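Thread: Newbie trying to understand structure tokens

Hi all, I'm a second-year student working on a class project, and my supervisor (Dr. K.) asked me to get a predicted structure for one chain before our next meeting. I've only ever worked with sequences, so writing a 3D structure as a token string is new to me. If someone could post the tokens and maybe explain what I'm looking at, I'd be very grateful. Here's the chain:
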Amino acid sequence: MNVKSIRDKLNTSIGELTEIKNLIVSTRKYAEESIRVNEMSALLLAFSSLSDEEIERQVFEIDRIHEAVNNYAEFMKSCF
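---
Reply by user tm_fold:
Sure, no problem. This is what the structure looks like when written as tokens:
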């Protein structure tokens, strides 16, 4: 997996979390989840700010986190 595709995945996940946060704010449902969304967003932003070499070294961890965020996003979207 190359660095560009990893960065694309991170950006996609950040976008999905932003969408969920907007749903939480607009519907006022699941307000307690906004903390979790903020924490996941901060983690993804930290990974996206890594250098290309650091991303290559941590590709497995980043991929696992991306998958977990996607699963969470799908679950939360189904709740609205």
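A couple of things are worth pointing out once you decode it. Helices lie at 3-27, 33-48, 52-57, 59-79. The chain has one domain: 3-79. Feel free to ask follow-ups in this thread.
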